[in-house]
Structures are given as structure tokens and as C-alpha cells.
Amino acid sequence: MPPQRRINIRQDVTPNKRTLRNGVATRMAGPWPLACVMAIACVAVIGASWGRADDDSLLLADPADAATPANDDPLLNMARPNRSKEAEKDTDKKNADGQSDSQAEDPHLQLWTENCYPSAETCRKCHPKQYDEWSISSHAYAAVSPMFQRFEQAMTELTQGTVGSFCVRCHSPVQTQLELPRDLSLLEAPAVVREGITCIACHRVNEHYGRSHGDRRIEPGNIHAPVNGGHGGHGLRDALAQANKLKLKTSPDQKGPGQPIHASANFFSPITNSDVCVSCHQVAVHPGLWLEIVHAQYRSGPAEAKGISCQDCHMGSVPGKPLGYEQGHAAVLNDKPFGTPRKHSNHTFWGPGYSIAHPGIFPHHPKARKIAPRDWLAFDVNAGWGTKGFEDRVDESMVFPEPWSTVDDRIDGRKIIDENIARVHEKRSSSAITLESAIKVSDPIFYHPPRSGRPLHVGFRIDNISEGHNAPTGSLGAQPQLWLNAVLIDPKGRRVWETGYLDRQGDLADLHSVDVARGHVPRDAELFNLQTKFLINNIRGTDREVSLPLNFSLDQLVFLRPGAVPVSVLNHPPLIRMEAHSIPPLDHRIANYTIPPTALKTPGPYRLSVRMRSRTEPIYFMKLIGATPDMIRRMNANMIDINQRSHTFWVR
Q1: Beta-carbon neighbour count of residue 535 at 10 Å?
Q2: Which residues pair with 20 in a beta bridge?
């Protein structure tokens, strides 16, 4: 075991004092309760004992470790392949003793972190509806996303660590504030860290930070500490007036039965409008590129001019549309809804994303927390563990890892898995509705009558009918992809022409396709793809698309650093720029195609089928950062199709 770090515990920390941990400067601002400082000390000490790089399942795998068993989970296969012989001996010894490799969460660590960063699970007791909505949201997915974990590790390695905490402070703000060491696996971190943008990430921030690139301070404190919201705390004051009757506890000193509750709630203006979103949804990376620009698009669009907020579309009653809010109770006290129904903001945070994580890890499930995250990754979902069909075939020769050694354990685990899979499908359905609310594809536009043996010029008008921001938007440069897939079927039912097709790797057949480069698949010259790309020119030559733009020194030392020329002059850093293809609000683009005469040989009825396809990550980018085959399979399996339709026309 590595030596433990020596931590000096003080009752307060000087405001804005910068500390150095693992080579990265971080900021601890304002006075901290003693219990919270002890929590940070505990995390640092335990992290030092846990943090073996060779045992961290969230570190980037070596590219040579590409062959992953089909039933393995991406999170489980993120360990470094070059493990030391001593570590392998330790693992072999554990397995020989019949013990699990996984490490359960330390109860003392959970207790200490709960006293200053309460988990969403704690909030669920009074706010079950809000918890259920949040638990499937992209906010809840932010930290446990296998793609985020891979990408963040890849960026750290590619930039020699100079990227710092840039990615983590948006995706896991509690992790940043606890200053968890990088070699601590997320699987062993406190539960509140795995919750990503959890309840307190918004409701315990009491200052408007603006464009701070995710650097916001969560006010530490236990469940009784004040919270901030958009209603002013009237309902809470009514409840506290009946504290004895409702058996509410407003202090940790109150013993006996009762429901813990906040002692006060404050009105926080930024949380009622789009200001609260800007710190993470308007972000510039170190070279000077605006990677997240959705807030700027919103500010310059018609929605902001009409007074429509981000919340109106992303937390309203209808995904993606400002059509008002549901009515609901703010809290449930003693298993009964309390107070008068009021405006309810949906905490699913409607958006186009979807999960590729193991269903035992995400969505967040109260019963799933009884099992260590690493043990969930050992549960083989694809093999059918816990289903009747599988368990009927189990014989004595089959060996299962703990805690899944008995049939009852596997059946109980399967119930949680099935519930989570159903909720993932629910979220994916809402993602499709959100996309449908923004994108409209017209009927085909024929520029001349179709004739056999002649080329056919046809087009589709794609409209962004949303008033909020461009479509698509989000983290630009590598993601997301939104493209048009069109197929022509001849009178004999044969597919004679297609655009927007995928190669054998699952990539679009564009300049990033390996199959296109090797001549296995023809390039899709007429591909209509709304994905924004990075362009570089490497001092000389024309622009070319790249997956990640990192500035290189002449001696090939890669690291992120500010550009020498002010970005305000060029509007982008030297040698790097963004090539935007997205559609602004209430605008449109025309996708024009020329169908060759070889596809129109036979007169008769032809069917032209079209759909827009959405994928949160391109496959070439996933391979670049070392994604496992199972991650790629899940990304393609969950691809979202919208505006699906077919049109029949006659060729004379």
C-alpha cells in the first residue's frame, strides 16, 4: 500500500487559495465546515491507498488492447494492459482465495462526503418525482458516461496533463471540489461523484458565475444546509411551521424518527432563467476554440428575443417545445404530497442524448446502490443472467462471480437491470421527440420529371423549426452527428441508390472512413451531414479535417496552451478553426442529390425512402480515444432515426 498523504486540517480555508494536487492547480473558495474539510482529507488519504494506476478501470486502454469480448462492458475494460507483475500476483492471489476483485464503497467515506455534499439519493426522500426524472437525464449520465471517461483520459494523456480539470469540472463538479486524485477510479469514488451534475450542482450554487467554463463553487453543507431555487422557499416555510406534526428534522442534533429537511430555502434568480446554464454550455477550450456555443446561439436567436428560456423547452411539459409546465407538488413528506400543486420543472432535461453505459450503472437506481459498481459490471446482461431461459440451463459446472453466485441473486439483479433498460428506452424515446420537435424534412423536390436512363436531380429541404439554437448543437468538432439517409428502391424491390450509408466499421463513408481510404467502400460524395468539424492547415497546405486539434511544437511535444495571437483578432486560434454545418433557428438547408441513370433503367414505380439519423459520437472518434467494441456496438444500436417516410413516384 502506498504511503498515506499527510493532510493539514483547518476549520477554514483562505478564500481563493490555489492548491496543487497531482500537478493541477485547483481553487478552494470561502469558509469550509470542519466536517467537509475532513471529508476532503479522507478522500485524499483513501484515494492514495486505492489509487493504483494498474487497477483503475477508468484509465485509457492501450490501442493494442482492441480485442474485447462481446459481453464485456466498456467501463470494465478500461484498465491499463501493462499491469505490473506484482499487481498480477496480487490479483491471482485474491482470485485463488475466492474473493472478489471489486472494492465496496468505504462507509466512512460515504458518511463524511454526505455531510458536506448530499447525494441525490438523500434528496429523493422528499423529491421522488424530481429524482426519477433526473436519474435518466444527461446530467445524471455526465460522469458515468464511458465516452466521457475515455475522452477525458485521452485528452489528459495527449496533452501531457495540461488540460487539467477542464473536462471534469462540468461533468463531475463534486469530484473537482473534493480534489479527488486522478488515480482514484470512479467506481470507488463516493456515490455523489458518480452522480455527475447532481442536485447540489445547481441548488447549492449561490453565485452567478457567467462564462466560467464550468468552474463553479458548490456550497458545502449537510442536508439541513440552505438550498437555492426558483420559488423562494414558501413551501418549505409552510412545512417547517408544522415540523412537529410532520416529524421533520432540521438539525443533525435531533434524534429519533423523522424526515431530515433543509432548514431554509432561498430564491436564486439565475436558476429561473438561462443564466444558470451558461457556465457549462458556453465553453472555450485552451487553444481558444469555442467548443460549446449553444448559449451564444440562444442569445442571438428568436427564442431569447421572445423571452423564452432554456428551461421552457428543456424542462417543460413537452420535450423541446415551450408549451408550458406540468403542475405538481414540490415535496413528499411522510409519504404524502405536501402543499399546493405548482409549476413543475421536468428534471429529465430534454435533449437528444442516450446512454451506452452498463444498465447496472445507469440510470441511477436506489436499489442498485446496494451492489458495488464494479460488481454490477460483472453482471452479464447479454448472456441473460437472471432470466428464466438462462437460469433453466444453468448446471453445477457453471461458476459465477460474487455477488452473483446464487440464482436468487441473479434474479434480483435482473429485476433492477430490466427496470433500468426500460428507463433507458424511455429516455431514448424522449430524445427522439426532442429531435423531431426541431428538425423537419420536406417531401422530395423533383427538379424535372423522372425519365428512365437519365439522371434524376432531387432535393430535400431540412428545416430547423426550433427557435432556440442551431440544430444540431452541443459539443462541436467531434460530435454530434446528424445526417440524411436516403434510399431508392426500383420496381423490382432492389436498392439501386443510397446516400448517408455506413461503412463496415459503422462510420459514415466520408474522409474519416478507413474503409473509404482503403477502397473497400465508395466515398459518399453527396453526403448531407450537419456535423461540425475541426479544420487545421499545419502552417502550409490547404485545410483538412481532424478529430482533435492539438497544437504541436517543432519537437513534437504536444500540450494545450494559449495561442500567441489574440483570439479576438482572428475569431479563432492560429491554424485551427471550426467548419460549421448546423442550421440556425428557423432557417433551412437544401440537400441536393443527383441519382445516376444506371439506377433508373426500368420504367415503373420507384420508392424513395428518407430519414434523419442522429448519433452522439462518430465511430472514428470513438476509436481514436480507445473505445471498446462493446461501446461502439451500443452507440450504433441506440442510433436515433427521425422523420422517416417513403415517397412513391413513376419513372416513364
Answers
A1: 18
A2: 25
